[in-house]
Here is the input.
Amino acid sequence: MDPDNNHFDIIIIGGGSAGYAAARTAAEYSKSVAIVDGSPVLGGLCILKGCMPSKTLLYAADVLHQARKGKRLGLNLVGGHLNMHALQERKRRLVDEFAAHRMSQLSSEKFTLFRSRARFIDHLTIALDDGRELWSDKYVLATGSVVNKPDVPGLADVPVMTSDDVLNLDVVPESVIVLGGGIVACELAQFLNRAGARVTIIQRSPFLLKSLSPEASSLVEKALSDEGISVMTDTHIEGIEKMDGEIFVQYRQGNQTRVASASHLMNALGRIPNTEGLDLQNADVRLAPGGHVETNLYQQTSNPMIYAAGDVAGPHEIVHVAILQGECAARHALKSVETPVDYDNLLRVVFTDPQVAHVGLTRDELREREIDFVEARYPFFDHGKAMLMDAVYGFVRVLVRRDNGVIMGAECVGRDASELIHVMSVAVATGQTVASMLKAHWYHPTLSEIWTYPLEEVQSSLR
Here is the structure.
């Protein structure tokens, strides 16, 4: 592309997972594709501050945790601690490698890359930081999300860490209060606890991980508590202050007022769509009540020439969904291909220990659609491979349509749930039945064969 050309068939604003997927797909249909991203380092949330760095830290802490359980497995392991400096060095090397690869992709000759921030001047024109103006026939917004800073009494007046800060710690804090009980809160709270910090979680909702099933939520809460994390749910924060080097959080739980203290405070109260500075009103792009860019099934916004994908669009802030949305947006924008993202096959994972994974429709969604279904579950504590691994927290569950035996959803809570769920992800996406799944060979002893038990139970009930 000629870098002096100010017009493009399509411009993608944002170079993260959704943005790159949109650009890569658009390049299949057009040679006039531009990417605009003014971030100091390109790569997006997943590579730089999300999936890859967090899972690097979580995996190291998990290895340490398993080593500490060695005596239960008949191992005599002495000592063992987490070297935060060495761990951070390894994490930085990995992130740098991932970011360098993404940079090479974004710098491809297929695209014109502008290292700048953009704002809309009108329906089809944007201005860059350097004053240059670009215009395009189509746009894809893929600007991601930023840390939420809610109006909690006293939160703005005390030092507070975000997930970004926790992922870059070189020293383990003595103690940490984690505000929030979502995925990031639970994953990083467990990491900090295993690293050696004393951790307290303060969650507003009655349950941790409120988007999960009650059984999954309760089991994760029990596991965190058993590891020594203080979990306070169904709370209302009344005030936060710092005194004598300590952070104090006063909250109400039921009819009682309580106070928690720690050396550090972490804000894990979620993220919000990153739309600030885009001047979307100049392009007649509407926002939904929650702040996401409002889109239709094909990722089109209220301005049909502008699309949105990834965290900025929602409704699911998950990397593979962002990629699917980016691809959908680019195909529809340039080729009018009408293939929306199928959220009935949605796959979700939480990387706590035990891990939690769910694919397909939930029980509530099946009931809302008035689909008659059968369900069965089986616990890890009665499964041979899980028992010999000392991985007895958890269960698997299958949700099956009663009239035809098609698997509509599945849930796994337990060791390696993030891996185990994929066999059921394929089953749900391809419309497999209980009978067809039981035709497969399931090797013994493996964790995967645990799925056969609820499948066999459902098959018996369908006869």
Q: What stands out?
A: Residues 84-106 form the longest helix (23 residues).
